[in-house]
Fold:
Amino acid sequence: MDAVDRAIINALQEGFPVCERPYAAAAEQLGITEDDLLQRLAALREQKTITRFGPLFHAERLGGALSLVAMRIPAEDFDRVAALVNAHAEVAHNYERAHAFNMWFVLATETEEELQATLRAIEAETGYPVYNMPKLEEYYLNLRFAV
Amino acid sequence: MTSATIIALPDATDRALIVATQSGLPLVPRPYHELAERLGISATEVMERLTRMQQNGIIRRIGLVPNHYALGYTFNGMTVWDVPDERIHILGPRLGALPFVSHCYRRPRYLPDWPYNLFAMVHGRSRAETDAQVEEIAHLLGADNRGHAVLYSTRILKKTGLRLGNRGD
Structure:
């Protein structure tokens, strides 16, 4: 990653135009060619330096239900439960965290009823309670990082 | 959400456009034209729909999300705080305004096991950096901090992203 890549990452975190030749427009701002920008973005995506490039959706406004869910799983049972939880397509991500509440996953479903049904299914399959922690209020969301 | 605006739900064509761009914008000189061809609509309509979805908040923005692990921000801590309910609407935005906080939300408590109602995700390049960030938040909250914990991630067990296709349509 060189100085031009860094400039691309910083600039395109702020936004990307909607017009006929958006890469040409963004490249002009960066002082590079459209072709150079396209090649560098492809390389950054290939190297996984960027996780996403495109529209970033407001998940709650797509009409579905979304929640963060925590579980407390004994260490010796952790991998079995992780496999059962991850087998649900509704589980978008799942992290192990260093705490008594050691499993944290995000559930995304079409409806609140489906979300509740998935929670009950996970409890029944694993034998452990789930702690549903939906977002009650959003104070801030910013995934931008200066590089 | 605090805003009382009427939320326009995406229609079938919007949803097709969302599905078509979930893995990213095509890396070709005319990406909106390519999407138009795939969906069988005009490029003008693609651009109009993307613009409208940005205006009504279905799309937060069109842009890039860096992989913070690849950029060296390998320490992410989910900091959780027990603050008075009647003060949380003031404290939440204050935490959110800190440069190292990427998400800040209010979530429900489960007493007595889980007393924390304010969640703030912090990111640093070292454990020392995130520890200092936690100190800064504790200092900012002062007496409103009735207890807190920092949950560092130790393993990614699954990461697929949110996909409409996963939601049964």
About this structure: Chain A touches chain B through 79 residues (CB under 8 Å). Helices of chain A lie at 3-14, 22-30, 34-46, 78-86, 112-126.
